[in-house]
Write a structure and sequence with these properties.
The chain is an alpha/beta fold and about 350 residues long. The protein has 13 helices and eight strands. The chain binds glyceraldehyde-3-phosphate.
């Protein structure tokens, strides 16, 4: 892969950490997209899987976070989270409980023990199915926490295009700030790049001011090369974020996939000047895993990608483990996970 060289680093580390900016849109110029450039895709075809796997191992093995810094980085993981419920048994009440948790993700004991004072540590967004957007918008009023909706026939993306576009418009109409769309994986597997580009461009248009996150379903794209090409086409068509997975595939967010997607983001910025966000999602359920992802972002794209306008975790259970680890940090003991149940 000639156009996306590896950034050379001497070791992966997370040290002192300034406070995260709020999730709000507007600080960065938005990606307008560009014409589909098939020639550029051709240049991106060569992906060295074993080099990416080695790089992923190096990043996590050599990570060092001093104990004092660890709590700060876990708090950052909370600020970068799309706290998610995407269950077949979701209800308005369940979504309201999740929003209450998003308003107050940490117990008073933890807030006091960590010396947080009035500093509000909250997830960047709550992510729900379309029918619960209005409920979440109401429950989060005044908090600055965004509402993200999964639209376009999540998780498979296989309803008629006009139905998927209507779904986006309905979610925006109900007040969603962000729309997470899924692509039909068949368009990638069949190398139908023009069709994929046209669909994503129409999704972007339907989003209006809401930001567009494009879910690739990487575990179903067969090769890392396909992940690279789908990432590039999505950004060319105007994606604000590219996202790995729905959480419903048998393989979800992996570090090698994260590496290829962040390198696509770097290549796109080098060519166009626009910074695109990244959202690994699916199966990220431990505090340790969240730190691995933060190391990857810092090493591959730099500190700017540790802010919620450029990085999110899509996660339904990560917050529970972070709470447990913060409690352990303070008391030296672990409490049972059920004490931190979210909904
Ligand atoms: O987009 C977010 C994912 O659906 C969450 O997946 P998870 O339940 O494995 O954390």
């Amino acid at each position: 892969m000639t156009s996306t060289p590896t950034r050379q680093t001497t070791g992966a580390s997370l040290h002192a950490l300034p406070k995260a900016a709020p999730a709000g849109h507007g600080a960065l110029p938005r990606n307008p997209g560009m014409a589909l450039d098939i020639g550029w895709l051709e240049e991106m075809r060569h992906v060295n899987r074993s080099a990416l796997e080695r790089r992923a191992q190096t990043l996590t093995k050599r990570r060092s976070i001093k104990a004092d810094n660890q709590a700060a980085w876990l708090l950052r993981s909370i600020s970068l989270m799309d706290l998610t419920t995407l269950s077949s048994h979701d209800t308005d009440e369940r979504v309201r409980r999740l929003c209450a948790k998003a308003r107050n993700p940490l117990s008073a004991d933890l807030i006091a023990g960590l010396g947080l004072g009035d500093t509000a540590i909250r997830p960047a967004a709550v992510c729900v199915y379309h029918p619960f957007v209005a409920t979440a918008v109401k429950a989060l009023e005044g908090t600055g926490i965004h509402v993200a909706a999964v639209s376009t026939a999540f998780p498979h993306g296989l309803s008629p295009l006009e139905t998927r576009i209507a779904e986006i418009r309905a979610s925006v109409g109900d007040g969603a700030d962000e729309i997470d769309v899924v692509i039909p994986r068949g368009l990638v597997l069949g190398a139908k790049w023009q069709e994929l580009y046209d669909e994503v461009a129409q999704f972007r248009e339907a989003c209006g001011e809401a930001h567009l996150k494009v879910i690739l379903g990487t575990g179903e794209l067969s090769t890392l090369r396909n992940v690279m090409l789908a990432s590039m086409v999505s950004m060319m068509a105007g994606a604000d974020f590219i996202k790995t997975s729905t959480g419903k595939e048998s393989v979800n967010a992996t570090l090698p996939v994260g590496l290829i997607m962040t390198r696509a983001i770097r290549a796109y910025e080098e060519r166009t000047g626009f910074k695109i966000g990244f959202k690994p999602a699916g199966g990220i359920s431990t505090a340790k895993a969240s730190l691995d992802w933060l190391v990857l972002m810092k090493e591959e794209l730099g500190r700017r990608w540790l802010e919620p306008d450029l990085f999110r975790f899509g996660a339904s259970s990560l917050l529970t483990d972070i709470e447990r680890q913060l409690e352990h940090h303070l008391t030296g003991r672990y409490s049972a996970a059920h004490r931190h149940a979210m909904a």
